[in-house]
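Predict the 3D structure for this chain.
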Amino acid sequence: MNKKEWFESLRNPETKKPMPLISFPCVQKLGITVGQLVTDSKMQADGICAMAECSPSSAAVSMMDLSVEAEAFGAAVRFSDIEVPTVTKALIADIEEAEDLVLPEVGAGRTALFADAIRQAKARITDRPVLAGVIGPFSLAGRLLDMTEIMIYCYTDEEMVEAVLEKCTQFISGYIGLLKEAGADGIVMAEPAAGLLSPQLNAQFSIPYVKRILDDHRSDDFALIYHNCGNVVPLMEDILTLDADAYHFGNAIDLPELAKQIPDDVMFMGNIDPVGILSRATAEETYKVTMELLEKLGGKPNFLLSSGCDVPAMAKLENIEAFYKASADYYGR
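Done. Predicted structure below.
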């Protein structure tokens, strides 16, 4: 993939297509469960391809299962027929356990399976980039330490948090390398837990580690997209120092207002509510809300319409169609 050409196409209203984080609804197309999807590479590839075939998206995006990396470290994960897998309990409780935490081999757990799904999907999808989803370092550390506890440890035990972050950073970077070898054209790194941090803590416990990972993989043919669906408004100054190729934001913030902080040469994406709108609203409401966002931001070349976060498996397919129709109608004027 020529990254520069792809991003230029995203700025051109004649070729602009939205890029929602939409993969899990493929279970409705394939007639399978989420549990089956996240444990079978062929089903994942079939799902990625199924959504690409029925969706005029600017990129195909793999499953955003944020339990995969934690499971590779040994965390217990609960699977469901209709929901994304979740980590069930903390793996680390003190500095000794943090220091003894074994860095998994690249490909451990289901990471090899997810890479194989990318390999299969990439062989079949030739009309758009194929992007892989990965978790961010602070969000992974929160799953290993427990999200409530890590917020306390940031104040009471910085050494332990940093010890875990170091291993998370190394593993995520290695995992991205595996996805790259499998043919991924880029990654969407989800760092939602950082949205809970103050600017000072975000600058200490998230930004430097994310930047190290992105710096490891910068190239002319690999897209680096940073996702944070938390309250990023007070964090934007530091977030922009990551120098990602694009930034993806959630519906927790007023995106038109946030856009005032984003330079015109920086691509940003978002932020239709994946639950309240794409899953629960009517198709008419979805179309209306999507068009309202486009009326505010669609004229900015550096804005790309997307969902605010990963779209749930059971989101209404008619709402997804209404989302795409609003985009086609707006840019087709």
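The longest strand covers residues 130-135.
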